[in-house]
Amino acid sequence: MESFPIIISSPSGGGKTTIVNALLAQDKNLSRVITATTRAPRSGEKNGKDYHFWPKAKFETAIKNKQMAEWAKVHVDYYGVPKACVDEVLKKGKCPVLVIDVQGAKTIRKHYKDAVSIFIAPPSFKTLASRIKARNDNTKDVKIRLNNAKEEMKQAKFYDYVVVNDVLPKAITLCQAIIIAEHQKTKRKDLKVIK
Asked: Does the predicted TM-score (pTM) go above 0.85?
């Protein structure tokens, strides 16, 4: 089976992590690429499982040495994808799943032309605001995330697909259907066997 990167983005609170965890549990041909960040772990997050939690100096050294497939400063912290992590998954014949922001998605699409991009959109801005407020008690951080979400939503039109996360099981099913359909595209098939 042809492997290709799968980019999944959403504003903070859009549900991308929950959806990706469900996809990974149901499809063994997918493998999440662990991104690196300089932000502190949230409650329950584990280094090397949810993110590679790097000190700022280590991240900046990786940027300088061109070891990142993409990176960006989001909110107040660095986030990025180490190149080795993507290439390792592709070599295994699996589809690397990249849970990244809209800035990172642009860069990945330049480096990996066959990547498939899915934007997870909230059903409304009011719903998104409620989700963000529920997970964060820092008023300043909430305002930053809401302002960023408005800008991120404008980027949805540049993705291959947009899935509205109004009903979680439906959103998961739609993402599964997209991945299945992408595997069947003519450009991913070896048609030499058909004569």
From this structure: no
- Domain 6-193 CATH (choose: 3.60.9.10, 3.90.79.10, 3.40.50.300, 3.30.70.360): 3.40.50.300
CA angle, residues 47, 121, 75, in degrees to nearest 5: 50
Q: For residue 138, what are its two tokens?
A: 């820092």
Find the mean pLDDT for residues 127-132: 80
Residues 122, 11: Cα–Cα separation, whole Å = 8
CA pair distance 97, 32, nearest whole angstrom: 5
Please choose, from the candidates 165, 122, 171, the residue with its C-alpha nearest in 3D space to the C-alpha of residue 145.
122
Q: Which is it for the CA torsion 53, 58, 63, 69, positive or negative?
A: negative
What is the amino acid identity at position 139? T
